[in-house]
Specification:
Layout (H helix, E strand, L loop, with lengths): L9 E2 L23 E3 L5 E5 L16 H13 L6 E5 L11 H19 L3 E5 L1 H7 L8 H4 L4 E3 L2 E6 L2 H6 L4 H22 L1
Parallel strand pairs: 3-4, 3-5, 5-7
Antiparallel strand pairs: 1-2, 2-4, 6-7
Helix pairs in contact: 1-6
This protein binds iron/sulfur cluster.
The site of iron/sulfur cluster has 14 residues, from α2.
């Protein structure tokens, strides 16, 4: 049987950012992953940081996060060609690091992506993304923010649980799919208004 999930094509970081060394994560054995999927997609999904994309031999690899994300999308009727996935941190942390500093250092990269790509809807996964995008909001957590729409940099955004949390706690799967269905509805509403 064919593997039901796909490895999304990676988008290279813009010239000058591919070797970014602004924060301490550049000293760990990792590389900048700017994003993956359709760079012109209407839906931009934001995860905390990239998982492994290659195994030890350098072969492309589908991590659990990507697999669960695609499972949820399929259940919600979202096509992989309609999404672009990016990260709060563009490098995969390999060891302990100063989290607030790295998140603050990397945020301008995400802000640049939003300016350049102008997606129609944003969707964040997990508490780290929620807290980092809404630092002034008390209790900015998935539990508080999911199920309704907010605004980030002038774009609608909502949240759901991190795919790894869903893998660990299967009782979250139903909420995960529900939230992804709400994302699809929001996108359809915006498309409807614009046509
Ligand atoms: S995590 Fe972000 S800010 Fe830090 S070195 Fe990588 S690209 Fe630069």
């Amino acid at each position: 049987m064919d593997h039901p999930y796909v490895i999304l094509p990676e988008e290279q970081a813009p010239h000058g950012i591919e070797h970014c060394e602004i924060c301490e994560l550049s000293k760990q054995r990792n590389r900048v992953i700017w994003g993956e999927g359709n760079p012109k997609a209407p839906l931009m999904m934001i995860l905390d940081n990239p998982g492994a994309r290659e195994d030890r031999e350098g072969n492309s690899f589908l991590c659990g996060t990507r697999e669960t994300l695609q499972f949820g999308m399929r259940e919600a009727g979202i096509d992989v060609n309609d999404i672009y996935v990016t990260y709060l941190l563009k490098r995969r942390p390999m060891h302990a690091y100063n989290k607030p500093e790295a998140r603050a250092a990397c945020l301008p990269h995400l802000q640049l992506q939003l300016i350049q790509k102008q997606p129609l809807v944003l969707f964040g996964f997990g508490n780290v993304v929620a807290e980092s995008l809404f630092p002034d909001e008390e209790n900015a957590s998935v539990k508080e923010l999911r199920g309704s729409w907010h605004e980030f940099q002038g774009m609608p955004i909502s949240f759901t649980y991190h795919p790894l949390a869903v893998r660990r706690r299967p009782n979250l799967l139903r909420f995960f799919i529900e939230d992804l269905k709400a994302l699809k509805m929001k996108w359809q509403e915006i498309q409807h208004v614009r046509t």
